[in-house]
Specification:
The protein folds into two domains: 128 residues, 3-Layer(aba) Sandwich (Rossmann fold), CATH 3.40.50; 120 residues, N-(1-d-carboxylethyl)-l-norvaline Dehydrogenase, domain 2 (Orthogonal Bundle). It is 46% helix and 13% strand. It has twelve helices and seven strands. The chain is globular.
Length: 260
């Protein structure tokens, strides 16, 4: 199968290597790096993997074919609405840093359709399936938000204070899912609790950004911090917020100046 990958960053190229090992032919497009011609890749590809930053993907969506098999791997969307016209879509999410995937580490992913095995194979990725598209997307977006606060609080993974934070953050995320037409049980899959734990640690860009905010409330990042994109959407009222979400409200507070 000819697979077009939108996003030639670390994550996109990691997924590309997995797809290539599964017997597919890979072509990359990256608007941030000037990789190849978008129209050529769209016309030549039988399927697409969408893994640019969420903000970039939002601008590309109007120009993408809606009938091709499309794997939505970008994390940062709080709703399925942007993808409503994609007739043959698969949403995937789960814990896995690009470096680990490139190193061949076995990784569990949550996916919405078994067709994912045609694109990424079944050797390196272990799949669990769910039809809760909204829940999978929300888990992938919200874990980045909570990772920012974990970094700001300088929590060390596997310590009692970190575990307490994970427990409370988990309850908040499940409440957010429940209030926004998603299944709170989806959080118990790899796209939820496993990804939250991985991201709330020092290898995560969002966690590192939280540490930077601790020193400077107006800190900017030269790298993509998807949690900030999600917070902008939350601040616009894109999702319903429960009355008691202490950690989410704290994250909104500490990022206020940075988002101005």
């Amino acid at each position: 199968m000819k697979v077009g990958i939108l996003g030639a960053g670390a994550y996109g190229t990691a997924l590309g290597e997995v797809a290539k090992k599964a017997g597919n032919t890979i072509n990359y497009y990256d608007p941030l790096k000037g990789f190849n011609d978008l129209n050529a890749i769209l016309s030549e590809s039988e399927s697409l993997i969408l893994c640019t930053p969420a903000m970039v993907l939002s601008s590309l969506i109007p120009n993408l074919p809606k009938d091709k098999l499309s794997v939505i791997a970008s994390k940062g969307f709080l709703s399925t609405q942007p993808f409503k016209n994609f007739k043959n879509r698969i949403i995937i999410s789960g814990p896995g840093f690009a470096a680990d995937i490139k190193a061949g580490k076995k990784t569990k992913l949550t996916a919405t359709n078994q067709k994912i095995e045609q694109v990424l194979g079944s050797n390196q990725f272990i799949y669990e399936y769910s039809n809760d598209e909204q829940g999978i997307l929300m888990c992938g977006a919200l874990k980045n938000v909570y990772a920012i606060l974990a970094g700001y609080l300088n929590l060390e993974p596997e310590t009692p204070s970190w575990q307490k934070y994970i427990n409370e953050a988990s309850r908040e995320i499940q409440a957010l899912l429940s209030l926004n037409s998603a299944n709170p049980e989806t959080f118990n899959l790899s796209c939820g609790i496993d990804d939250l734990k991985l991201t709330c640690g020092p290898s995560s860009r969002n966690y590192q950004y939280g540490q930077a905010l601790r020193k400077d409330k107006k800190a900017k990042s030269t790298k993509t911090v998807e949690g900030l994109t999600t917070l902008k959407e939350i601040n616009k009222g894109k999702i319903k917020i429960p009355e008691r979400v202490v950690y989410l409200n704290k994250t909104i507070e500490i990022t206020k100046e940075a988002l101005c």
